[in-house]
Structures
1.
Amino acid sequence: MDFELSDEQRMFRDTIRDFVAREVTPVAQEWEHTGRYPAEIVETMKQLGLFGMTVPEEYGGLGLDMVSFAIVFEEISRGWMGVAGILGSHSLACWIIARYGTEEQKSRYLPELATGERRSGIALTEPGAGTDLQGITTRAVRDGDAYVVTGSKTWITNARYADPLPVLVKTDPHAAPAHKGMSVLLVEQGTPGFTVSRDLPKLGYKGPESCEVVLDGARVPAANLLGGVEGRGMQQVLSGLETGRINVAARSLGVAQAAYDAALKYSRDRHAFGQPISDFQAIQIKLADMATSIQASRLLVYWAAACADRGERVDMQTGMAKLFASETAATAALEAMRIHGGHGYSQEFTVERLYRDVPLMVIGEGTSDVMRTVIARALTSGKEKVG
């Protein structure tokens, strides 16, 4: 067993780490609190080719292995998790287009998505349907060479920049089971009837916008049906979410590491009763637990990514990684705040921002309880085992 990164992966990690230290970390606190969009950071990510992580090389992308993919989200999230979100849903959209799109769709969209000239996201959640995607009500009715789409989506990251935006719809609302009547349409900006209505106010996850999207009789060309065949949308989306969970697990890992780094530094600098508080056993125990859980999370995340690289089905592995890493991040952020004491509640310190960011990691790409269900189903089906 080899638990080490390859030389190429380490060099890649160092490149991303240098970028974050130089351009992300110094501005994260101020820009996050003022709600400033990180346009300059986005430009550098374009230059680094990061918008093409999941785009195959033949279309101008990096075609990264999944471990390197995880490294990007871990390192950027150590500096500012919100910035990683700009890449997250974009990379998921690129992945499903690259895997399921027609040759015409791939040729039309992927080269510009790889450079960041085009950006994307993915529209799944609705006001009345989140975890239960089969309960969506957005409909697409075929009318000649187009679909007429009516419905709304919510909590859509990158909605104002996404072009195209993959949208999960029901092309046959009477299908049984429901997933057989679901499809994905690639909706381009400027489509009449397609509106990004408002940005949603959020506790954390500042930087990228999260929006409501309205489709009011929007006419989408039939050529924009992902894969060209109706009824495969649920399969396409769920397959993509396995990759998305690596992204969220790695982001969780980055936030947890940032919380630990801040807590360790503060414990060395802060003195009480004539000594650094890092000398107190109560603080040492907290730091030891944080460090152990973070390293366990890292091993789970890289293990899930490595399994994906081998072409395995990874719903159980990504579920375990996302569950453990996100819960570790939530615990680490709270413990870091406790170690900081009153200063941890101040907006002048990083841990306050981390504490607001972690709830999204526990919720996004499936809640912790949904992850437990995914893991249990894989185990009880006999297709996966532990040990």
Note: The domain at 235-380 is CATH 1.20.140.10 (Butyryl-CoA Dehydrogenase, subunit A; domain 3).
2.
Amino acid sequence: MPSLRMSDQAILHLARAWCFLRHPAICMRTFNHSGMLPHPARPATYVDKFLWRKIFDHNPFFATACDKLASKAYALSTRPELRSAKVLWSGHDAREIPADLLAGDVVVKANHGCRWNIMIRNGRVDKAKLMRRTSRWMRSRYGRKFGEWGYKGAERKVFVEEMLLEDGQPIRLEYKFHVSSGTTAYVYAARRDEHGNEQKCHFDRDGIYAPPPDGSGKQWVRIDLPASFARMREIAETLTAPFDHMRCDFYEKNGDIFFSEFSVYPLSGKGIINTRLRDLCGETWDLRQSWFLTTPQRGWRRLYAAALRRWLETRPGKPA
């Protein structure tokens, strides 16, 4: 394995110092949840790679992935056999939502954020609260606090979406595929029980159950995968092909696969509880396939990108 030349080592050290000086808050947050001093300029771990993505890898396509309506359009045009919850209305002011749309089972969402959702069952809605929350969404830029650059390009909109129901209840089970360079690293399944409590489960690419560490809590349970799992995985790997790493989420209902969303920064880059899968995901995520390292950079970033490429080539067990 070739060694790294002194000039490259100096560039990587200077880039790390620049990251700490230019982005102290998000570097500190990474340290707080990982317990280790991050190395965003020379990222080897799963956590550091997400920090590096926030600081350096500003792929223009991330704006599409972070834009809920645009990502739906991309997914459905790429794989026409997919379904998605129907969008009933979209706009910039929730006061313009037709009253009859709020009379049934719908979800009001922000197009440019994560977990900015209001579920409405049987028309039961506090309209004053709805207006306050949606107005706050429209004034806010999601992701600024945590350095999630991709949300900057998502259009600020509110939209109303049909609620996916199963046996008269909101569909409870969601499948989240973490895909690196076109190959699934692991799958996270999340299900809400009848009391609204979330139950969780991990699988490897082949759908083999990956038990959590001992003492991780009652919310970790074994969940059965549907017969459509392999087809779902193949679709996820197709949809995420333009990215070096992406999470792609689906629902499944009566054999039909419904696209939910992409996540450019799942959990804002925090490591998952299953260290074996976290490490596997970090190992298979090849930064050489990233936008930053496949697109010509300018100024000092050009020097840094060249040094980073050479450092990645010295890594033992680097992705093929």
Note: The longest helix spans residues 6-22.
3.
Amino acid sequence: MSARILQDTAIRYFLEVVRCGSISEAATRLNVTASAISRQISGLESALDTVLFERRSRGMEPSAAGELLAAYAFRNQLETERVHNEIQALNGLGRGEVRIACTAGFAVDLVPRAINQFRQQYPGISFQLDVVIAREVSRRLIEAEADIGLTFSQAPEPHLNVEYRLNAPIMAIMHREHPLADKHSLMLSQLSGYPLGLPSRNILMRTVLDAGFSRKGLPMNIAFTTSSIVALLAFAQAQDCIVFSTEPLVRSYLAANQMVAVPIKDRDMNSLNIELHTLAGRNLPRAVAVFMEQLKTLLTEEQ
């Protein structure tokens, strides 16, 4: 494959169409005409003698060849960024950027705390944190929009490495004045009669909770449902209500707001894992690699 082809403007246009799934949306983002993008992609297909997209009514989907080229081009883009950052940082971690994608729970306490600790030692490193749903974390890693991903355990993704895994039992979170707050541990049966604040149904923790209560035939007194962990915590702080989280994600928040996390003994509540992901086969920029090691250390200490 010609190196000149892979460095051409057409690759940049091609990757934007992969990201957007639409030539018109890619044109808007790149501030060029749709016809210019179409010409570049047609030229690229001609040069490579293959079809790169399947044209469908709902947009553009990469063909098998397109997916292969996109994976190669994304990695090439990341390697270029890494070399640039390494050159800038030859005298130490004076400059650099770390891009993190995570689901909502990690943004309450754990990730901001890790960033704060890191910047105390390396103040020249900047961070970008995007809070998204789990499948979007994977997409951003694969498409070079993030360096590190944090989610709860998901189905294996062939393009991603699990750099670290930590068992994260679900705990009952409540104000320290709640009648159950002084218990060393609880069963779901003890929680069933109290008002509960639950994550939305599209969130993995909700699936685990629903299954746990259902398996034991226990009713759920649902007082509040939301996709926001921050809203759940605020609700539990103000109301005589129990919500759920894994303790490492909210440790500092609980201490600052007179709340407690009580372990739940039911086996189902021990099934979640925190996972730290990176793109498979990628050479990480030094700032990213050093921050990731610190994040691993912090997670180990949380355990």
Note: Confidence is low (pLDDT under 50) at residues 1-6.
4.
Amino acid sequence: MIQKKLTKLVGLKKTDFDSFVQSGQIKLQQAKLIPTLKTGDEMALTSIFLSTVRLVKEYRDGIFKSIKLSRAGKAYYYTETSFPDVSSSRIDGLIIVVTKGIITDAVFFEMKNKNNGIDQKQVEDYLSISKSLKVNKLVTVSNEFVADSTHSPVKVKVPKNISLYHFSWTYLITKGRILLFKNDIRIQDDDQVEIMSEALHYFESSVSGISGFIQMKAGWKELSESIRAQKALKQSDEFIEEAVLSWYEEEKDMALLLSRKLGVLVKSSSKNKESVKKDIKKVINDNCITGELIIKNAVSDIKLMAEFERRIVSMSVKLTPPLDKGNKAKITWIGKQLENCKKKNDILFSKLEKELMIEADIKYAKANIKVKLSELDQLIDSTKDKEIQAFKITLNRGFGAGFASVKKFIVLIDNMVLEYYEGIVQYVSTWARPTPKIVQTETELINN
């Protein structure tokens, strides 16, 4: 009997796939929720993750949607997959989707934990295997953060028609945590809730090898100290790009931190290929870097700014005041918004109060008028003969020497965003123009 040659996965009959497994041309293991592997081993982590995807419908739907994997058909989950006739490499994970007996979609997974970063050569090897077997998706997972799932921690040339995704373990944990909140997307089946809870218990334990974003790159410290010392910066300085990428990662970290606290997925600002270049120029020209956190149903996006020279971090939200009122009434309105924050959480508000600035956005003006919260009444005179069209509530916090610290900066800014949201953002609201009402004419009133 002539042995068939393995030339593809997608498009292959499932019966032929099984035959290749029996002949040894495909080697693999079934993913198990309780693998007989050493605790903390990457393969154990891969097996538990893929089994959780298999067993928890809402988690599976979210992951499949994120990587554009077909949900039409039956999915099969494998670990330790290799194709000896194609490559000597062993791939950590594989999901195939079978419809009417044919493999219609598939994805490879490369998983890392602890301090192990995604390896460029491994990714290149797996992309080559993907191309050979017509698998158009490769997902890498590690403790490394990226601004967007379509970005990779390593620089590789991705073949045409193949999509390369990367997720941090923190992101995957956050996706699971959100499903345990009582919201519209929560897990419906009680048994699946228990499975998700147990999987997260393992992921979040110290033995799993999973950790959050705990350290900025060394370039962050070098950039901070260079600006502080007023050294000339060049676009070619590698440490500036390192600092910018660290900021993107921390922005993502803050978004996931808030997501776990709020039970909704908070997004960081979107990045593309030109974002790094633009932000490097901004750092060189303005000595600052900006970002934002997008929170569904919040009063506005939270704008972020880190100023390297002054070592200050700013966070702000924008509110629209009653546009059918005069400036004095608008200023009274914003004052009442902040009084409500104080009433809701007096202890936290008292801590933030001295760091708060109120900015009046003046129609047709090039710059906002800023005052400390304690000087809010001064806005009445400052905005005379002007029209206020919006307010910004800004929290400015000096980080001192902690700004340049690769570890302390993360602790300080994570703490700041939680305090700002809990003390201010969750309690303020924006004005909405009243719904127009039908006005009856005098004739209609007489006729009625």
Note: The first strand starts at residue 27 and ends at 30.
